[in-house]
Design brief:
With 317 residues, the chain is of the alpha/beta class. Helices cover 38% and strands 18% of the residues. The radius of gyration is 18 Å and the shape is globular. The two termini are 33 Å apart.
Length: 317
């Protein structure tokens, strides 16, 4: 999340009528326990489209869960690479790692460099992944997260957690694409300098892509805190709140001043639909204690499941 965060004044999201637990989504707050990651993995496999019960059980036993895979990315970015401010060698190493991850799933990957002048001049990049045969007639969803960190901390929650969520959502939908929608995945550079990577992408978005964009999802600081939280456009905000409520959570709506606190901000400012996925509230924000051992992989699983459901809704005529 970008710097100069205002004091958090969270407003409880209104509960939809008669919320019910839905097995497609990650665990609710009262279901934490030793078997949580297996249960969450099963929910995501259902979301990834209806494997038979027997096959689902076999997959649970033989495959690593989404949350466990996400933690590999969190640890690599925050421990192997570590502090990675925009324009640094570590920043470029992180971008290369993410490009390789997307390419290994079969995506077409563009590394898009851009210059910045915040604090001191430099060059960083966005990493953009898309289906090689993306159909320009389909509605478009962009899912993104910034991968840079502040110089004062290794950025495990802010924002290796969001970056890992994007990587694992891309992996999930590479195996089982949602029909009727084109999805692009973006690792944004220079968010911590003022949302510069997402602004660069919005400034260079084609007229066709602007016209067909149904939703931009920004994943930022997903894994430390007590509650899922959201900010952004309707009806997407209501959809996200309803799905979190259905899992027994009490999601919160972030106040209006969060419109410029993550990479959905430039989209909203351009009149494009966007939503910010967040988790309240991390006392190690922008500090050296933002380390991987504090990251909750089940929170990443929940947010990826909600993101996948929003993409499915975006695909509807």
């Amino acid at each position: 999340m970008r710097n100069s965060r205002p004091p958090t004044r969270l407003i409880l999201g209104a509960s939809p009528p008669s919320p019910r637990r839905d097995p497609r989504f990650g665990p609710g707050p009262r279901s934490r326990g030793p078997g949580l990651s297996v249960l969450a993995a099963a929910s995501l496999l259902v979301l990834a489209f209806l494997a038979p019960a027997g096959a689902r059980a076999e997959t649970e036993a033989s495959e690593t869960s989404l949350g466990e895979r996400a933690m590999e990315t969190v640890r690599y970015l925050s421990e192997e690479i570590g502090v990675r401010p925009a324009g640094s060698e570590a920043d470029r190493e992180a971008a290369q790692y993410l490009a390789e991850q997307f390419a290994s799933m079969g995506y077409s990957v563009d590394v898009d460099p851009f210059r910045f002048r915040a604090r001191s001049p430099g060059t960083t990049q966005n990493v953009v992944a898309r289906y090689p045969s993306e159909d320009p007639r389909l509605p478009l969803v962009i899912v993104g997260a910034h991968y840079d960190s502040v110089p004062t901390g290794p950025g495990a929650n802010d924002n290796a957690s969001g970056t890992a969520a994007v990587i694992e959502l891309a992996r999930l939908l590479a195996a089982d694409p949602i029909p009727g929608v084109a999805v692009r995945y973006v690792a944004f550079g220079a968010e911590e300098l003022g949302l510069l990577g997402s602004q660069h992408l919005v400034d260079n978005l084609s007229l066709l892509d602007r016209a067909r964009l149904r939703l931009m999802i920004s994943m930022d600081m997903l894994s430390v805190g007590e509650q899922p939280a959201f900010h952004g456009s309707e009806p997407w905000l209501s959809h996200a709140l309803a799905r979190a409520w259905s899992q027994g959570w009490e999601p919160v709506v972030m106040p209006p001043n969060f419109a410029r606190m993550s990479d959905h901000g430039p989209f909203l400012q351009a009149g494009l639909p966007g939503i910010f996925f967040y988790w309240t509230d991390d006392p190690c924000w922008h500090l050296a204690c933002d380390v991987s051992s504090r990251v909750n992989p089940q929170a990443i699983e929940l947010m990826d499941a909600i993101a996948a459901e929003l993409i499915r809704i975006a695909a509807e005529p």
